[in-house]
Design brief:
This protein is an alpha/beta fold and 195 residues long. The chain contains four helices and eight strands; from the N terminus they run E-H-E-H-E-E-H-E-E-E-H-E. The two termini are 28 Å apart.
C-alpha cells in the first residue's frame, strides 16, 4: 500500500483546485519511454522481473511489461510486492490489512528486479519495498521505475526511471488515476499555498 500522503482519494473526491499535469496519452508515452530505458540499461529483457507496489504500481508494472513486450517480443514476468508489514508508520497506525505478494515463477534470485510505483515522494515506501524484497531472495540488481517523482526525499533513494519529474511544495498533493483502479488515466496536482 502506498504511503498515506500519496494515496489518492476516490475520483469523486478530487479537490476542485486540482489541475491536470499528465494526460492519458502522456502517461502512455512516459511508460513506453521507461520501457525503452529499462531495456537499454538491462541490454534486453533477459532476467528482468517487474514488481508493482500496490495499489497503482501494480497496473503500472503490467503496462510497463506490455510496453517492453511490444519492443522486445518477449514477455517479462510481473508480480506485486506488498509492503504493509515493513512500513515505518505501523506504530502510529497499526490497523492495516496486509495485501498480497505475488512473485512470478522463477522468483527473484539472480534476476534484475524493477520495482514500479506511481509516485516517489519521501522514499519511505521504497525503503519498505526493499525490506520486503530482501525476505524473498537475492536479486542481482534492484532498480526503481516511477511514473512521477515529486521530490522531498527523506531517505537517500532515487529512481532509475522517471516518467515525469514534478516539482511540488509539501502542501501539494499528487493524485494518480489509472483506468484499472479509477476508471480514467490522469495525474493531477492540488493544494499548495494560495490555492
Amino acid at each position: 500500500m502506498t504511503c498515506p500522503d500519496l494515496s489518492a482519494p476516490a475520483p469523486s473526491s478530487t479537490p476542485p483546485d486540482a489541475r491536470d499535469v499528465l494526460s492519458a496519452d502522456e502517461i502512455s508515452r512516459a511508460l513506453r519511454r521507461i520501457g525503452h530505458e529499462v531495456l537499454e540499461r538491462n541490454k534486453g529483457a533477459t532476467g528482468l522481473v517487474l514488481l508493482g507496489i500496490p495499489s497503482r504500481g501494480v497496473p503500472l508494472a503490467h503496462r510497463l511489461a506490455a510496453a517492453i513486450s511490444e519492443v522486445e517480443g518477449t514477455d517479462v514476468p510481473v508480480g506485486q510486492l506488498d509492503i504493509t508489514l515493513h512500513r515505518d508508520d505501523l506504530r502510529r497506525n497499526p490497523v492495516r490489512a496486509a495485501g498480497r505478494t505475488e512473485i512470478p515463477d522463477g522468483g527473484v534470485d539472480d534476476r534484475v528486479v524493477v520495482l514500479v510505483d506511481d509516485v516517489l515522494y519521501s522514499g519511505r515506501t521504497i525503503r519498505a519495498a526493499l525490506d520486503a524484497l530482501s525476505e524473498l531472495g537475492r536479486p542481482r540488481a534492484v532498480r526503481l521505475a516511477v511514473l512521477v517523482d515529486r521530490g522531498h526525499r527523506e531517505l537517500p533513494i532515487r529512481a532509475d526511471h522517471v516518467g515525469k519529474n514534478l516539482p511540488t511544495s509539501r502542501d501539494e498533493r499528487v493524485h494518480v488515476r489509472l483506468a484499472e483502479v479509477d476508471g480514467l488515466d490522469v495525474v493531477r496536482i492540488s493544494g499548495g499555498v494560495g490555492r
